[in-house]
Every structure is written in structure tokens, then in C-alpha cells.
Write a structure and sequence with these properties.
By secondary structure, this protein is an alpha/beta fold. The strands form four sheets. Strands 3-2-1-4-5 form a five-stranded parallel beta sheet, sandwiched between helices. It has a five-stranded parallel beta sheet with strand order 10-9-11-8-12, with helices on both faces. It has a five-stranded mixed beta sheet with strand order 13-14-17-15-16, sandwiched between helices. α6 crosses α7 and α10 packs antiparallel against α11.
């Protein structure tokens, strides 16, 4: 079988005219990378998709709202023909041939003089794969290679001054499922010398670490919560000042009741550089996997996330419970299992109806996930009767009852 061979090269398109004939979904896919490369992009098409129009409105490219005409490729350095009309694409390719301009023809690859590789980026590396006209194969190889690079299974030989981040990275690990960590978070984990990990961080990610990585379990530190945080801060600073790259792997998002900013302050005061990688917060992700949208048009116009680590009448509480009770939208309580009944009583006492729907999701996004549906007035009894234990998210509001209105979804 004949396999078409191509010469793979990197083009410097910065400031150079690139013409894209066609404004549909193919153009929509190709344009962002051209813009990111600094090309002076011009789109010629009677109509464009809303996404392409958004790029035009943002000043990222120029759109000529008309059909292609011979001569449109004058002074172009690179051309993409991606209209739904084969005859137009052929005419674009013919003009490009005459002008000796490389042209990608989206509908018939062999009809052009260039092809678009499956591409992806990793820490300053631009990976491109061509498979002789078999785009699914090239995309699969590209994805596998990028995954291997991000997970550290393929060494990219980056040096400390070559894309490696010094100091500490505060990485949000997401709500529990290891697949929900961000791409950047996984990428930095693959570069870590030391990982300081929370109890609620995705534990499976630790199994992917290279053997030389030191793992510090932040959940087994004695002397209580305050002393534990002091120890964590000191651990981050000590390893970073010793020249090691430290990843502080936390559950959810570092800045949502995760004490991430305290750790940042400790590092900054010690002169340690810090990178913050946001995570998928359990406050929104866990309700979602339990079929509870924290907002819904016509149902909830606000969401309030509340820490439940102190009781409503505790002098240390910063929460205005009477104000929360007057809200009609969604309340998401974190760290509130132990005092769920007290919170419910406070809300009802200040005017929130006792029949307000409530969903309690224990260990959301993991294989041990449990969902208990009840009402605000019965919340305390339901948590006790069902043996709910942390970590669990409590969602209060009309959105918690929407699943009961749809057949096939769990009902209270």
C-alpha cells in the first residue's frame, strides 16, 4: 500500500498573511492555533460560525464577508481551503499552486500541497504527528504521547531553566475522582520532587509518581489542626529552599476552604516562588454528579458556599445565618456533617421553609458515592439515620429537588 510521505516542518507565521477560505467548523478548529502563532489571519467566507465571529469581534483576525475570488491569495504565506464547496476548494488550491503558496485542502487532502498534523503542547514542546492521510491514527498517537509526557512516562529532559517551575505549586486535585484533576495539575505532579498530600486529594494519583518522589502525608501530623498547618507550611518552605520542586496536592480547589492562601503567604515570606493551580471544587462538582445543578434558570439565581466547621452560635462564626435563611437560592455546606442538624435548625428558625429540598452527597465522584435526599426540616435526622460521614456535601434549595421531577433519575 502506498503511504503518502510529507516533510514535517515548523512555520514561523508571526505577522505573515494567512488566508482561510471558509468560516465553518473546520475553520473554527484551525483558527485558534494560527492566531496563537501570531499569524495575520484573514477569513474569506459569506458566513462564519458564532465562535469565529467572536474572534473577529475580539480583533484576533479579519473577516471578509463574501465569497472567494481569484486573487485573494495575493501576498499570502499559507492558505487553508475549508469551504463546503469542493469546486471552491479546488479553485483556491489551484491559485495557491500558481502562486507557490502552500495550501491545506480540508475536503481532499491530496488536492493540496500541505496537510495539518495532529498537534498538542506540553511544557514548551509542540508535538506534531502525521500518519500518511490517516487522521484518527495521528490523533491517537498524539494523545498517547501527550499523556505519557504529562504523566512522566516519557522523559522530556527539561532542565531547571527550561520550563521547570521552581519552588512550590499549590495544586487543586479536584473532588476525588483522579480523572478530574486538571491537565496542568497532573503535569506538575509529574515534575515533583516532593508531594505534600491531603487526605481528600485523589490518592490514586500518588501511584503514578516516579519512585524517587518523596510523599509527605499531611493527614498524619500530630498536635491538632493549627499545629498541622504550621508543620505543612514549614515542610513546603524547607524542601523548596533545599532546591526541590514541591507540589502541595489538595482536595478540591486550594483557595476554597483549603487554606491555600495561608500556604502561599508562608512561602512568599520565606522567598519561595509559588504557582497556584486551581482545582475543580467539590462544592459544585459533587452536586453535579448527583444530578443536582447548583443553579437552574428560573429556580436559583445565587449560590452561597458555607463552611460548617463551627456551629451557628459559635462566637468564632463569621456566617450571617439569618441572612442566609432569607435567600431563595442554593446553599452548599462543606464540612457540615457533624452539625447538619444545628445548621438546619438555624435556617428554619430564621425563615427558610422546613420543606426545602436537600441533597447530601457523601464521597462524591468516587466509587463510594452515596446520595441521601431529604428536606431541611428532616436533615439532622436523615444524616444520623443514614450514617452519613465526612467528606460530604450538603445542598439546600429548590435545585436539590429537580431530579425527582425527571423519570429515570434518583428520587428522594
Amino acid at each position: 500500500m502506498h503511504v503518502e510521505q510529507h516533510y514535517l516542518a515548523g512555520l514561523d507565521l508571526t505577522g505573515r498573511r494567512v488566508v482561510v477560505v471558509g468560516g465553518g467548523t473546520v475553520a473554527q478548529r484551525r483558527l485558534p492555533r494560527l492566531v496563537a502563532a501570531g499569524a495575520a489571519v484573514e477569513v474569506i467566507a459569506p458566513d462564519v460560525t458564532p465562535a469565529v465571529e467572536g474572534m473577529v469581534d475580539a480583533g484576533e483576525l479579519v473577516w471578509h464577508p463574501r465569497r472567494y475570488a481569484d486573487g485573494d491569495l495575493d501576498a499570502a504565506w499559507y492558505v487553508i481551503a475549508c469551504t463546503p464547496d469542493a469546486q471552491v476548494n479546488a479553485a483556491v488550491a489551484a491559485e495557491a499552486e500558481r502562486r507557490r503558496v502552500f495550501c491545506v485542502r480540508a475536503d481532499v487532502a491530496e488536492g493540496g500541497t500541505a496537510v495539518t498534523p495532529a498537534t498538542g503542547e506540553h511544557e514548551g514542546l509542540l508535538v506534531g504527528v502525521l500518519a500518511g492521510g490517516r487522521p484518527r491514527r495521528s490523533a491517537a498517537v498524539r494523545d498517547a504521547l501527550l499523556d505519557a509526557l504529562r504523566e512522566g512516562r516519557v522523559a522530556d529532559h527539561a532542565e531547571p531553566g527550561d520550563g521547570r517551575l521552581p519552588g512550590v505549586a499549590l495544586v487543586g486535585g479536584g473532588p476525588g475522582d483522579p480523572d478530574l484533576v486538571t491537565v496542568r495539575g497532573r503535569r506538575l505532579l509529574a515534575r515533583a520532587d516532593v508531594v505534600v498530600v491531603d487526605r481528600l486529594a485523589p490518592r490514586e494519583l500518588l501511584d503514578e509518581l516516579p519512585p524517587h518522589v518523596q510523599v509527605v502525608d499531611a493527614t498524619k501530623i500530630p498536635y491538632g489542626r493549627a499545629a498541622s498547618q504550621d508543620f505543612i507550611n514549614a515542610t513546603l518552605v524547607e524542601h523548596a529552599l533545599a532546591g526541590r520542586f514541591v507540589v502541595r496536592l489538595k482536595g478540591g480547589d486550594p483557595y476554597l476552604f483549603g487554606r491555600g492562601f495561608e500556604e502561599l503567604v508562608a512561602c512568599v515570606e520565606a522567598g519561595v516562588p509559588v504557582t497556584v493551580v486551581p482545582g475543580v471544587t467539590s462544592a459544585f462538582a459533587v452536586p453535579a454528579v448527583a444530578d443536582v445543578p447548583v443553579t437552574h434558570r428560573g429556580v436559583a439565581h445565587e449560590v452561597v458556599v458555607v463552611s460548617g466547621h463551627v456551629a451557628p452560635d459559635d462566637p468564632r462564626s463569621l456566617v450571617d445565618w439569618p441572612a442566609l435563611a432569607r435567600l431563595r437560592g442554593t446553599l452548599v455546606l462543606l464540612m457540615a456533617v457533624e452539625r447538619a442538624g444545628e445548621f438546619a435548625e438555624a435556617l428554619v428558625a430564621h425563615g427558610r421553609p422546613g420543606d426545602t429540598p436537600v441533597a447530601v452527597v457523601q464521597e462524591g465522584t468516587t466509587r463510594n458515592q452515596r446520595v441521601v435526599r431529604t428536606t431541611l426540616g428532616e436533615l439532622g435526622k436523615a444524616v444520623e439515620a443514614e450514617g452519613i460521614r465526612p467528606p460530604a456535601i450538603i445542598v439546600i434549595g429548590p435545585v436539590a429537588g429537580l431530579a425527582a421531577e425527571l423519570p429515570g433519575l434518583p428520587r428522594p
